[in-house]
Amino acid sequence: MISSLALKKTMNPSILTRRDALKRLSAAAGLTGASSLWPRSAEAADNTAAPLTPRRAKKIIVAGGGIGGLCAAYELMKLGHEVTVLEASGRAGGHVRTIHDPLPDGLYADLGAEQCTKPGYERYRQYAHEFGLELLPYPRRDGEDRYLDGKLFSEEMLADRKVLSGLGFNDREAEYLSRHEWHDLPLLFFGPYLDSFKDEYQPFGVGLDDLDNISVTDLLRREHASDAALRYVGGKETSALYSLWHAAILKHRGVPMYPKELFRIKGGNQRMTDAFSARLGARLRLGCPITKIVRGDSAVTLHFQEFGEDKRMEADYLVNAIPLPVLKRIPVEPAWPEAKAWVIENVAYNMQTRVVFVARTPFWKSDGLKPHLSIGLNHLYHVWEMADEVPGDRSILIGSAAPGTTERQALDAYRSRYPGKSVEIEHTIAHQWFMDRWAPVCERESFRVGQLAKFIPNIMEPAGRIHFVGAYADNLNWGMEAATRSANRVAKTIHAL
Ligand SMILES: Cc1cc2nc3c(=O)[nH]c(=O)nc-3n(C[C@H](O)[C@H](O)[C@H](O)COP(=O)(O)OP(=O)(O)OC[C@H]3O[C@@H](n4cnc5c(N)ncnc54)[C@H](O)[C@@H]3O)c2cc1C
What we know:
Blueprint: H1 4-11, H2 18-29, H3 42-47, E1 59-63, H4 67-78, E2 82-86, E3 98-99, E4 109-110, E5 116-117, H5 122-130, E6 135-137, E7 145-148, E8 151-153, H6 161-166, H7 171-177, H8 185-194, H9 216-222, H10 227-233, H11 240-253, E9 262-265, H12 270-280, E10 284-285, E11 290-295, E12 300-306, E13 309-315, E14 317-320, H13 324-327, E15 332-333, H14 338-346, E16 353-359, H15 363-366, E17 373-377, E18 380-386, E19 395-401, H16 407-417, E20 425-432, H17 452-455, E21 466-468, H18 479-496
Parallel strand pairs: 1-2, 1-14, 2-10, 7-17, 11-15, 14-21
Antiparallel strand pairs: 3-4, 5-9, 6-9, 7-8, 11-12, 12-13, 16-19, 16-20, 17-18, 18-19
Helix pairs in contact: 4-12, 4-18, 8-11
The structure holds flavin-adenine dinucleotide.
Flavin-adenine dinucleotide binds at residues 63-69, 86-89, 94-96, 112-115, 289-290, 321-323, 326, 330, 352, 354, 400, 433, 438-439, 442-443, 470-471, 478-481, 483.
C-alpha cells in the first residue's frame, strides 16, 4: 500500500524525505549504491527534484564540449549556476560535426551523428524547436534494399515466405517475417518477456536476472530459433538480459527496433551544438584539455592546459562529459571508487568511419533506384543521401564503414554493389574518427554476458562530486538521445543537491 507521504511525493517530486536527503548526502560522499540517484523511472529521470530552488549558485565545471556536455552546461546555466565548460579541441561538438568545405555547390555532410527518431529523442527535438532549427524528414530507411550473403533483397522479397525459407528460417520465423519488418525478428523471441520490465531504468528484480548470465544466442536456442535467426539476430557475447531490456525500453517509448520515422537538422547537425555553444558564450573554453582530476570532499580540482600553460580550477561539482575510454587516460586522485573504476575500464564502444561521396548528378534517379542501400561490406555498411534540399545537380551520399576504411576501398565497395549502371562519383572523403585524439569512439556497445549487473546502475551513478553525462550515461545507448537525457538528469540532480 502506498503511504500518504509517498503519494504526496508522487504528486510533487520536490518533497524531500529524510531518506532522500541521506541518499543525496551519501551520493556526495562517494559512489552511491543502486538506491541512490539512479532514476526510478523515465518520469523520475525527467523530474529529479527540478522544482527545488538552489540556496546559492553552485560552481560547476563541465569536462568536454560534445552535445552531452554542452547540453548539461546550458541547463545548469539556465538554473542559475556558474558553469565553465573545458573542451580540449579547438571546436565544440565532439562527435557532432558538419563539414561544408571541401564540398561543392553549398552541399554539406554530417561526419558524426545526424539523425533522430520520432517518437524518441524528445529532448533533442525540443532543443531543435527552442533554437529554431528545422527538422527535415530523413527517409534513409524507406524501402531499403539490402545485401545478404552477396545477394540483393528488397523489403518485399524479405517478406516472402518462400524467400525466407530459402534463407533458412523455420516456418514460425518465416510466417512472422511475412507480417513484420525484417528488423523486428528479435521481437518474435523477446516479445513474451518485454512486459515484465515495469520501469525502463530498472532491468533487475523482474524475475529475469539470471538471463544476464546467458547470451542472446543461448536465449534464442531455448526459443527454438533456426540457424538463420541465430545468424541474423543472435549474439554469442551479448547478455540476453541486456538485449531484452533494450527492446523493452524501446517498447516503453513507442520506438520501433529499427525506426523509419527519422529526421535531421536542415543545414547539418552541428547547428545544434553551435546553438548550445553560442548561448554558453565565454563559459565555453576551447583548447583546454583536462590533464588531471583531484576529487576532494568539499570540492573538485581540475588541472588543464590553456595556451600551453598548466592551469587549475576548483569547483563544487564536476560533470564529466568525456567518453569513458578517453577519461580513463586522465589521472585521478584519489582513484575512482572500485565500482566506477570497473565501469571506466570495461565499457566498450563501437567505432565507425564516415564516408562521403560527392556525386556529379543524382545518378540513381536516372537508374530509377533509391539512393539508400544496405551494402553489408566492411568497407561500406550502408549508404544514403543527405543535403538533398540543396539546389543543383551535385548530390551527397554518406555512409558508414569499418574504422580505417580508405576512400578507395569505400568507393570500390560501392561500385561493386550499386545495382545501377552509372556511378558518377567525383570525390570521396573517409573521415577516420579513431584518429581523433579527443573524440575517437562512436556509441556505447551492448553489455556482455554477466556484465549488466556491473554496469547498471554504476555507469550513471555519481562518484562523490563528479557526475556523469554523455552517450554512455543513460539506459539506452543511442548517442545523442542518451547524451541529452543524461545531461538533463544530471543538471536537475546537481541543482537539487
Ligand atoms: C559516424 C557516426 C555516426 C553517428 N550517428 C548518430 C546518429 O545519427 N544519431 C545519434 O544519436 N548518435 C549518432 N552517433 C553517436 C553520437 O555522435 C555520439 O554518441 C554523441 O555525439 C556523443 O556525445 P557526447 O557529448 O557524449 O561525447 P562526445 O561527442 O565524444 O564529446 C566529448 C567531448 O569531450 C572532449 N574531450 C575529450 N577529452 C578531453 C579532455 N581531456 N579535456 C577536455 N575535453 C575533452 C572532446 O573533444 C569532445 O568534444 C554517431 C557517431 C558517429 C561517429
